[in-house]
Amino acid sequence: MLYGPRSISSERAAGVLTLNGKAYQAVSSPVLAPNLIGWIVFAAELNDEHLQQFETLAAIPLEAAVLTRSDGTWKATDTNLTASDLLRLQSDSLDTETTSAPRRLRLGGADTLVQVTPLRSFADDGHTALALRYPLSLAMRPYQALLAAILLVGLIGIVALSIASWVLARGLARPITALDAAVHDLQNGKRTEVVVETQDEIGRLAQSFNHMSDEIARREKRITHMALHDSDTDLPNRRALETALQAFHQPGVVIAFTVERHQAIRAAIGYQLAARLIGQVGARIAELVPDAPTGRLSADTIGIAAPQLNGDQALDLAAYVRDNVNGALRVDGVAVDVSLVSGVARVDNPSAHSALDHALIAVEQARATFQDSAIFNAESYGDPARNLSLMSEMIDGINRGALSLHYQPKLDLRSNTIIGAEALVRWTHPTRGPIAPDLFVTMAEQTGHIRALTEWTLIQAIADQRSMRAAGIDLPVSVNLSGRLIGNDAFTAMTITLIEDTDARLWLEITETAAMNDPDAALRNIDAYVAAGVQISIDDYGAGLSSLSYLKRIRAHELKLDKSFIEALAQNSREALLVRSTIDLAHGLGMKITAEGVETPATLALLAGMGCDVAQGYLVGKPQALQDFITFIGKPDGLRSAALG
Ligand code: C2E
Ligand code: MG
Ligand code: MG
User: Whose CA is nearest to atom 43 of ligand 1?
Assistant: First the structure.
């Protein structure tokens, strides 16, 4: 078969020639003699060897293959290209007329860069193309070391970064953890010094924290000191003593030492010096009883706590302290006579609070009985807390009829007849039973309820007197009048009107001290009562601060000698002398004399012998309810001779 040039001409032709499925590089040249007689064609097979030489021309390890198409099927000079590779090439780029851009195809199971360039055909007998392949793995090979290096550097970087972060975190976290722990300790009231390891911000923070916690600890100590110490004297205070007592866990005593006349001392030398004086007394007591906790209980009182002591030992200790403190103390150059009164309370119940209170009350109990020292007497103290609402309960009792008057007869010693009766109030409390008149009358005086009580008493006494009269008993009734009301002009006017309106025959008993509260008003009102026909008795004479000038001024009809004189009359000649003198005194001033608290016939006989006018007491008759009293008097004519021998 002869392949002629594409066009018969005298020019040479060159291109790729496909023969029997093999590709040849062919060049033709016309043979002219002189006319064209033929062609000379030179052809060299483009076989593997040829292509390998071609491959060596490239700077990179290319693989070259010539692709030929005959009968519509592509073949390759390179046997490495499989049929499926050819198909893939064919579908991708073989049919293009121009050189394709390098592209990535999967050939022979590997990613390959492929560029296909159409070759000029020697004869128009089909297509030929040059496929240059460059496996991607080869293309990438020079970069793999770089990639590995980058990866290695990255890895080293990450490790280094991790280590650095860890070191940094450790460096940051450890002091912060230590700070956190110290803050927790501080919250729990414990101070921990944070170790300062660095001079950076954390170190400075630790330093600041130490400084702050130190300051807090100092301040807390100061606050605790202030809470447990008296600011004027720097002595431990009541709370400190309470705390000490709570730690006792065994019976013991509290002793309170009160500086007598403290108010007068303070008025004389001033608050500051008086406080310093108490400070000195406290320090001296602490010196004398070094093992006992001390504390300032009030402005004028120092307390000490002594475990294991009983009452008598406590009194001895109190005497020892008083003996060693009493006397002149110098404060700022001023000499002050100090005298202590002591009160002892046992700490056998768990409340330290009440033991201290009881010791303070014991001081008052000692003062009330003119002693230097006393042990707390619960019985005489009673239960003041129960009495806080007593007055409203009393008013309620008045409205509900829970109060009544009992009558105690008065016996005339010359005629041996009952010549009067004293009205004494009685109150039966719905839950507490009978309440002592001394308790609620005194409280009514202190709280201003005495007027309501006395108005009720007067009205009731007048009503009871009417009942007695109806029963044929016509006796004057003595009503006790509180000193608080004697000076009250409005009350006096009301009482006088009441008495005049009801035609009552009343006597009023007033105590000497009470009348002296406001002597002018009292004497003026007493005169008004006398003018209205009311007889006046001086009650409990001798029990208070008796004053002759008072006796001289008051226009009384009767002097009632206090029962404290009468009780001891039969045994004590001194009392007898006093009673006899008082009887003479009363008579000398134009008054009758009544002896209170007559309990024995011997006393009655003595009083009669001394010239006493009237006797009142259990011997003659106890205070009795109205009906019992009426029965007691018992005679239709109203006056029964007391059968007293
Ligand atoms: P007082 O006026 O001196 O009354 C006499 C007190 O001595 C009464 O006590 C009476 O029960 C008591 N007494 C009478 N005979 C004897 C006796 O032989 N031996 C003893 N040991 N005591 C005797 P009471 O009733 O407890 O009253 C106490 C005080 O309460 C009275 O003393 C009086 O000051 C006051 N009081 C009583 N009732 C009233 C009242 O209605 N109004 C006012 N303001 N005070 C009253
Ligand atoms: Mg009386
Ligand atoms: Mg009396």
Answer: 480
Q: Is 3.30.360.10 the CATH classification of the domain at 238-381? A: no
pLDDT per residue as tens digits for the range 403-456: 999 999 999 999 999 999 999 999 999 999 999 999 999 999 888 899 999 999
**What is this structure's pTM?**
0.60
Cβ burial 176-208 (10 Å sphere, 16+ → b, else e): eebbeebeeebeeeeebebebeeeeebeeebee
Class of domain 385-635+637-641: alpha beta
Identify the CA nearest to 550 among candidates 507, 529, 520.
Answer: 520
- Regarding the beta carbon of 460 and ligand 1, being less than 6 Å apart is answered no
Residues of the chain with CATH 3.30.70.270: 238-381
Considering the chain, tell me which residue range(s) the CATH 3.20.20.450 domain(s) occupy: 385-635+637-641
Is ligand 1 within 6 A of the CB of residue 455? no
- In tens, the pLDDT along 279-298 reads 999 999 999 999 999 999 99
Distance in angstroms (rounded) separating the CA atoms of residues 360 and 366: 10
The CB of 434 under 6 Å from ligand 1? The reply is: no
Question: How far does residue 274's CA lie from ligand 1's centre (Å)?
Answer: 43
CB-side neighbour CA atoms (13 Å) of 364: 9
